[in-house]
Design brief:
Layout (H helix, E strand, L loop, with lengths): L4 H19 L4 H5 L2 E9 L3 E4 H15 L3 E15 L2 E14 L9 E16 L2 E14 L2
Parallel strand pairs: 1-6
Antiparallel strand pairs: 1-2, 3-4, 4-5, 5-6
Amino acid sequence: MRLIAEDRLGIQELMARYARGVDVECTEEEFLQLFTNDAVMTSPVTGSNVGVEGLKAFREVFMKRRGKLQLRHHINNFVIEGDGDQATLRAYFVIFQTRTDIPPNERETQLRFSGDLDCVLRRVDGHWKIARRDVHIDCRSL
């Protein structure tokens, strides 16, 4: 069964929730709900994080970073393919950062990374979840 428009919108919503989850306060439960229990996340920056414990460790790192940085993940140019309860997603991403430990009128927003996301997604109990997320970086500004 081919993916229908509702599936594609659900996948885009999942990725928006992922971006907001790492950029803006979210609970551990909200973050974990974005992923399958056996999820794998790889990145040249954060390494490999596997399963629930790996996701918790990844979240702990980005929560600490929030003390002085506001990050903004922008995910776009979605290419979604799939059939039934499994899909792949390829997308571009750009991450901007702004230091929050200085007065607002002195802050500058800077490019942190850009690159590609390669994801495997699965429908679990009627909801799309990330089973694998691989990051490929084009550039690193800082």
